[in-house]
Amino acid sequence: MRPGESLAKHTWQVLHYLRTLAERHPVWSEIGALPDGSAFWPVVFWAAFFHDWGKVAPSFQQVLRGKGRWSHRHEVLSLAFLDWVKYFHTPGQMDGMTAAIVSHHLDENEVARLYPLNVDPEFDSVEDLVREIDDDALQGLWRWFSEIAPVWIHDLEFDKLGVTAPDELSTVGAYEKLTRFRMEAPAQIRERLWSFCSLVGKFSYAQGKEWALPGILLRGSLIESDHAASAHVPSARRLELTHESILAGEVSQDKLFEHQKNVANVSGSCILIAPTGSGKTEAALLWACRQWQDGCMSRLHYTLPYQASMNAMRERIERYFPESAGLVHSRSALAVYRTLMEQGYDPVSAARAAKLADQLARLRYHPIQISSPYQMLKAAYQLKGYEAILADLAGGAFIFDEIHAYDPSRLALTLELSSFLREKLGCRFLVMSATLPSHVRRRVEEALESPPVVRASDTLFREFSRHRLHLVDDELLSDGILTAIVREFQKGRSVLVTCNTVKRAQDVYRRLCDSIPRESLVLVHSRFNSRDRIRKETSILKATGTRSDERRTMVVVSTQVVEVSLNIDLDVLFSDPAPLEALVQRFGRINRLRRVDKAPVYVCTQPADGQGVYLSSLVRQTLSTLEKHANGKDIEERSVEMWLDEVYTGEPLEEWEEKYRKTQMHFRKSCLNRLYPFRSMEELEEIFDKMFDGTEVIPSAYHKEYLELREVNPFQAAELLVPVSWAWLKANEKRRLPSKHPWTVVVDVRYSAEYGLEV
């Protein structure tokens, strides 16, 4: 609630938003059915109706006005009014209302600490809570319940969801009920608190597990509605997904490939295998249309592994469905801010609009969400508010793009959670890739219960053959390779040079500076701040982007960031040795539009030790397989799967399988099998962040500018932060400088707009 907003207005907004969620998530009704067989929606409605009634306490009202303090919880006082609906609901429904109301701000352990059940009655503070309510307030609340609630139920069409209004009999003896309220309410609150703690206590035993999913949806739906109403979000948006909305864009019906037509007819989960550049994104959206037409899609979740690819996908989907895609990652607000600035917004307006867009995305307002599996996994690790995340995921359709990018541990977490969501929450999944090796495909099929596989034709794979491979027994930093790069540039070809580490990329760039004009040479890697990286990426896209009409010859020196982040099309590749999946992605940036018959891609064979980034045996087997099948030959992506199966034998496969199985079993045992509502595991938050996300640092030379910008435009300040991994920060702990601001990590490391962070 906003200060000064009436309780009635806020409650109406919560119920209104809840009703729009009912339209978005029809699956809740079935999944949320209570263990005693009673209906879900009456429980949620009355929990939402009563959830804030404890705020009528005069002491709480004084706190809202900035006067005094209150040591109680309004949600506990709200329990006193549940007796008014007791006569037309089952005991199970009453337990559900209790749990949803008392936990919509606090976890069970916090409630138990504030209101212990074993306290001496003489010192029981519940009595004080009830005495707070005066007669006028009590009578007004009764009229609201008996006269207004039936009108709201009808007007919001909750009666169509099985919500029953209090009938005339409930108003008989109203005065008697009110006079008994002060005597009976303390006991009612204690009884409700006891039932709540008892319910949570059962989760460790078999008889409590049947409450897990209903409890998750009860708490999640109330939290989501309450937060959205407090932010004055009008309704949860739904989107009509139709083939016409997609085919009216860049792809017409008569130009669809066969695999796009086939996947558009699949009802349920599916695997799509098609070559790079053959319209997998459009195929995925057509698949989503089918799920929407089936009535089996609450929201569409487009998941990608990297922030840069998420940012690009948002812009792409917005072309089909304007203002319908929410972007969620650790720097999503900054990404939206940069987009708005490019569209001509002034900094103040862009900042305001970016904040709003980010808030709406995190409130799950948009019908389409673009994020990483990291956002889904927050729920499995029971971080704060995880019930709202799971409730939102229920009935969702998920597109997993670039699944090749996940290491075995992250893939295990993602697929194991997907299996849970499919089985328990009615979710559907499309997993797509240009290359899906057998060991990965087996795991996907296991998680999704053997979904159909849609594969592009062999003819299409041959048509999309765009590269000729050359293995070079040398390394990128050698004089011979550097000379070859310069020679290709002088022939008028744009060259991509991809290194496995930031330091090697910086060294290659430094060596090329004497031979290639600076305006035609650019270095890009993960350790640039946003301000410099966006400038570099803009110049790269302008010179080599697939949509650019200002193409010119350029040499791009990069790390793995180029594998997924930029929609570019260059002429020649020189690459460090890497696992086959990574090399294929690097190849995908060359001759992307098939401007020539076959473009050369050069892969150095040294050093073959993985350079601390990859498993050395995996790199060696990749080079051996390529030497055997592809050196000096054209590459057909349909053959890559067979090559991957050959690479993943012996030690690489054994290590992959061991990491996958170990992560899978631990995740299932420690998280999914213990996924119960009304309690979070905040102590896991830092561990979780370090598993899946990096952090950001500010180079000491920019610290003063950063602090000054924070005062006037936090987004411009954020553009100075440099992303690094937790491992990097730990390795450079001695370079960390003391800071008066706990939210700032300052490092004494040289940084330049040309080279980025240097070590």
Structural class: alpha/beta
First-to-last CA distance: 49 Å
**Portion in helices:** 40-55%
Numbering strands along the chain, what is their spatial order in the largest sheet?
A: 3-4-2-5-6-1-7
Number of helices: 34
Overall mean confidence score, pLDDT: 89
CATH secondary-structure class of the largest domain: Mainly Alpha
Rg of Cα set: 29 Å
**Count of domains:** 4
| Largest beta-sheet details | 7 strands, parallel
Question: How would you describe this structure to a colleague?
Answer:
The protein is α/β, with parallel strands linked by helices and 759 residues long. It has four domains: 7-230, Hypothetical protein af1432, CATH 1.10.3210; 243-458, P-loop containing nucleotide triphosphate hydrolases (Rossmann fold, 3-Layer(aba) Sandwich); 466-635, Rossmann fold (3-Layer(aba) Sandwich); 694-757, no CATH class. It has 34 helices and 20 strands. A seven-stranded parallel β-sheet has the order 3-4-2-5-6-1-7, with helices on both faces. Strands 10-11-9-12-13-8-14 form a seven-stranded mixed β-sheet, sandwiched between helices. Strands 16-15-18-17 form a four-stranded mixed β-sheet. α3 crosses α6 (91-102), α6 (91-102) packs across α10 and α12 (212-230) packs across α20. The model has no long low-confidence stretch (mean pLDDT 89).
Brief overview:
Helix content is 50%, strand content 10%. It has 759 residues and is α/β, with parallel strands linked by helices.
What would the keywords be for this entry?
759 residues, alpha/beta, Hypothetical protein af1432, Rossmann fold, 4 domains, 7-stranded parallel sheet, 7-stranded mixed sheet, 34 helices
